[in-house]
Each structure stands twice: as C-alpha cells, then as structure tokens.
Specification:
flat, disordered N terminus, disordered C terminus, membrane, MetI-like
C-alpha cells in the first residue's frame, strides 16, 4: 500500500516544479492576486495621479495655506492700517478694512508724544547688551560642558535644566532681591542695564541648545587644532564659532525678542521714567493717547523685532534641529 498523500486538485504523480508548473503536462498553478497596498494618508498616490484627485489636492492646499497665512498676517495688517485711521473710524461698527483717508499723522504723533526715539534707544541698549553677554557666557558654558568635560559637569547641566521646570513668577522675587543687593559684592543694580543683562544671560535653555550643537561637532576636528598648538579659547573662537552660526542665530533671536517684549521684569527693576523700555513706556502713556496713536506706537515698537527675525530666520530650523542626529 502506498503511503503517498493526495491533496484535492493535485495528483501524487505530478509534483510541482520550482517554476510553478506541474510535471507530466498538468495544469498550471493560478497566479496569486496582487496585494493592495494600504496608504495611511488622506489622499493616496493613485488618486493624485488622476485629474480629479489633483484638483481636490490643490484646492485643499490653497485653502489651508491661505487660511493659516491670513490668521497670522491679519492682526499685523489690522494694526498697520488702524494707525492710518482716525479715532472715530477705528472705533466704527462695522469696521472698515481700508482707511477712508490714508494718513501718517498717527505715526508722527506717536513718535513725538511718546518719545519713541528715547524708548527705542533704551530697549536697543538692553537687548544688545543682553545679546553680547548671552553669547559670551552661554557659549563658553556650553563649550566647557560639551568638549572640556569638567568635574561635576553633568551635575551642573542637570541643575541648569532643572531651572527650566520652575515658573518665572516663582523666581521673580528672589531675582529682584538678588539684583537689589548682589551677594558678596552688595551692589544695587536697580535702574542700571545690568539688571536686564545678567538675568538674560543666565538662561539654561540657551546653554542646552548650544551644548547639543557642540556635541555634534566631530572630536577629530578639535584634536587637529590641538595638534597645531591651539588653546581651548583659540579653538572656540577659530573653529567652533564659525561652524556654529545656525545655533548662534537661533540664540540671538530668542535673546533679543525676549528682552524686547518683556514687561514685568523691566517694570520692577527700571522704575526711573528716563530708563524705561518701550513696552513699559507705551503702557504707562496708553491712557493719555488717542487709540490710533497707541496703535501706531505698537507698530513702530514691532519693527525692530521683525527686522531681527528676517535677518536670522534662515538659521531657525537649521539651528533647532542641529545636534539632534549624529553621523
């Protein structure tokens, strides 16, 4: 008795060949059906290849881009055109999207009545000094933690990152007392630019960003500079700084914008009216100014930060993602 096992639809005397055909002239095996690939997207590539799919895709894309652009740009447009209107037209209901009569009188009055030139000069001094001190101290600290590897460096970095978990309002009173009476030196820094510069430079987030970027710099590059006799300071200035422009641009934007728009801290440490920043100066005189003049002052105060953004904007994404991947 034969021990061969016969399956339905296939004879025991005609086994399949490696090519898929049965020996002995039997019938061929049916080809398998292609497996449908599932795409986890709203529109699959197959639908995009059709005219109807492309039309729907472009309609949705244009509507989305225009909607998000309008949501971000419209407040700026409303602020710029509102300064060109009279107070009555600015408060009219329903509002007008275009001024009935274009006029720059609101900007002229804002510049003269609020003394925006002096306020802009004070704020530029605070932002510029904070930017320089931030680059000096934060870059040096990040370079030391990344490449020099000091004793207890990880502990110091952990303590810096721990400060990011503390709400700013919680440390505002201790920071104010420190500025009013600096420990060991007993200096009173109120009404001086140092009250703005030193807290701005003591930023753990900037140190963390810079350290992550410095970690991605090849060690061989620094060792080659050491062989040539360069000191650590020389390596930082001549090797590390030139290739760190993306992250330096990001840190520059964050520092300048934070100092420029800050309100509560300058209000505490700069009580003298002659040394006010522009945000405090506009807020203190807002109740005495017509509404169109107030809006014009806000437009003028926003121009420097917009200029800084356009200067460094190409470094934003490059700097924020730098150091996240190695290799």
């Amino acid at each position: 008795m034969s021990n061969a096992i016969v399956t339905p639809g296939r004879s025991a005397q005609s086994p399949l060949t490696p090519g898929g055909e049965e020996r002995g002239g039997g019938r061929q095996r049916r080809p398998r059906k292609p497996i449908n690939t599932q795409f986890r997207t709203a529109v699959s590539p197959h639908q995009l290849n059709t005219t109807h799919g492309r039309i729907i895709y472009w309609i949705v894309l244009v509507i989305t881009v225009v909607s998000f652009t309008a949501a971000f740009v419209f407040p700026l447009y409303w602020m710029i055109t509102g300064a060109m209107k009279s107070t009555e037209e600015l408060n009219a209901i329903p509002p007008t999207f275009l001024p009935t009569h274009f006029s720059l009188d609101g900007y002229r009055q804002a510049w003269d009545l609020l003394e925006l030139g002096r306020l802009l000069g004070n704020t530029a001094l605070y932002a510029g000094g904070a930017w320089l001190l931030t680059l000096a101290f934060d870059v040096s600290a990040a370079y030391a933690l990344s490449k020099l590897r000091p004793v207890l460096g990880k502990v110091v970095l952990a303590l810096m990152l721990a400060t990011l978990m503390i709400p700013p309002l919680v440390i505002m009173l201790p920071a104010y007392l420190t500025v009013k009476d600096v420990p060991f030196f007993h200096w009173d820094l109120l009404n001086t630019p140092w009250a703005i510069w030193l807290p701005a430079a003591a930023n753990g987030f900037n140190v963390f960003l810079l350290k992550r970027f410095f970690d991605s710099i090849p060690r061989e590059l620094l060792e080659a500079a050491e062989i040539d006799g360069a000191s650590p300071g020389r390596i930082l200035w001549s090797v590390v700084m030139p290739i760190s422009r993306p992250i330096l641009g990001v840190v520059s934007i964050l520092t300048v914008v934070n100092v420029w728009r800050d309100f509560v801290w300058p209000l505490l440490v700069l009580p003298d009216s002659d040394k006010m920043s522009i945000s405090i100066g506009i807020a203190s005189l807002s109740s005495q100014m017509p509404q169109n003049v107030l809006v014009a002052s806000l437009v003028i105060a926003s121009i420097p930060t917009i200029v800084v953004f356009f200067i460094f904007q190409r470094h934003i994404m490059a700097g924020l993602t730098a150091g996240s991947l190695k290799g």
